[in-house]
């Protein structure tokens, strides 16, 4: 099946048509800047522009970067506080007239990895952790998504762990990879203590730089980089959107 996959991020909103049988993009990616402030109507407008760019009339799957439950935004997070309580799929459907399914961005990236990337055939408990503006998580048991986990919000020193260990914090505080790796070590140790995953997969921008910090991480479970890299968000949005488990 062909589905338009859209990945809503803190800095950009990207879309492409995805062949969900192959898990591949069948068009070039199209990217527009995330509007600032990233209020619901402004973001919906950009989503509409992406739909129009592809002259798309079919189904759309979206990966969305906030806590969600059944397509409803639980907190505006790194986007904008006005999102809280918005039924995101409904807003995008009303704006474009198309059928939308909206899932969490890290769940989407995880779906892409489990179906077509580093997680293929991996059984047991797999935690896909995305390191970017925030820390996202997609949790899978025997390849099936346990949706809407927010493992970046585990608390450290009274704040969400992502405020201490996200890739954006590395940049903001100008940390060396060694310093950042030590912070990530604390994070992964905590998650391992709580969940004992069999495998960690690192997604987000940091997956391609893993060799710079992985030697700081001392956990029992293997930790490997994602394979789909930049495309995972779009592919996973399209593939995961119609699993109907969210
Ligand atoms: C949000 C998650 C999201 C992650 C990565 C966090 O701040 O709470 O829902 O998956 O950032 O974008």
Structural summary, described in words:
This protein is of the alpha/beta class and 246 residues long. The chain has two domains: 2-107 and 231-245, ATPase, nucleotide binding domain (Nucleotidyltransferase, domain 5), CATH 3.30.420.40; 121-226, ATPase, nucleotide binding domain (Nucleotidyltransferase, domain 5). Helices cover 30% and strands 26% of the residues. It is built from seven helices and 15 strands. It has helices at 40-53, 88-96, 105-116, 162-165, 167-172, 177-195, 232-240, and strands spanning 2-8, 12-19, 24-25, 30-33, 60-64, 68-69, 72-73, 100-104, 125-131, 135-141, 144-146, 155-156, 159-160, 199-203, 223-225. Strands 1, 2, 3, 4, 5 and 8 form a six-stranded mixed beta sheet that branches. Strands 11-10-9-14-15 form a five-stranded mixed beta sheet, with helices on one face. A two-stranded antiparallel ribbon has the order 6-7. A hairpin with a 3-residue loop joins strand 9 and strand 10. The longest helix is centred in the C-terminal third of the chain and has 19 residues, at 177-195. The protein is globular, with a radius of gyration of 17 Å. 43% of the residues are buried. The model has no long low-confidence stretch (mean pLDDT 95). Beta-D-glucopyranose (BGC) is lined by residues 65-67, 77-78, 104-106, 130, 132-134, 136, 150, 152, 162.
Q: Which descriptors apply to this entry?
A:
single chain; 246 residues; alpha/beta; Nucleotidyltransferase, domain 5; six-stranded mixed β-sheet; five-stranded mixed β-sheet; 7 helices; 15 strands; globular; binds beta-D-glucopyranose
């Amino acid at each position: 099946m062909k589905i338009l996959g859209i990945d809503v991020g803190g800095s950009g909103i990207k879309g492409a048509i995805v062949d969900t049988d192959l898990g591949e993009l069948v068009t070039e990616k199209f990217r527009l800047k995330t509007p600032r402030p990233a209020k619901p109507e402004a973001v919906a407008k950009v989503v509409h522009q992406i739909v129009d760019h592809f002259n798309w009339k079919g189904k759309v799957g979206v990966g969305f970067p906030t806590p969600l439950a059944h397509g409803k935004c639980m907190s505006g997070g790194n986007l904008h506080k006005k999102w809280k309580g918005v039924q995101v799929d409904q807003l995008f459907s009303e704006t474009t007239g198309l059928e939308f399914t909206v899932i969490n961005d890290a769940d989407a990236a995880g779906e892409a990895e489990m179906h077509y990337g580093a997680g293929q055939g991996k059984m047991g408990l797999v935690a896909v952790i995305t390191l970017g503006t925030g820390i996202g998580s997609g949790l899978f048991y025997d390849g099936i998504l346990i949706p809407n986990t927010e493992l970046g919000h585990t608390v450290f020193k009274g704040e969400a762990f992502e405020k201490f260990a996200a890739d954006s914090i590395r940049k903001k505080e100008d940390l060396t990879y060694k310093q950042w790796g030590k912070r990530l070590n604390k994070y992964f140790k905590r998650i391992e203590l709580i969940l004992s995953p069999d495998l960690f997969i690192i997604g987000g921008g940091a997956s391609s730089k893993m060799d710079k910090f992985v030697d700081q991480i001392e956990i029992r479970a293997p930790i490997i980089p994602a394979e789909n890299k930049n495309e995972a968000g779009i592919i996973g949005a399209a593939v995961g959107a119609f699993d109907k488990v969210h």
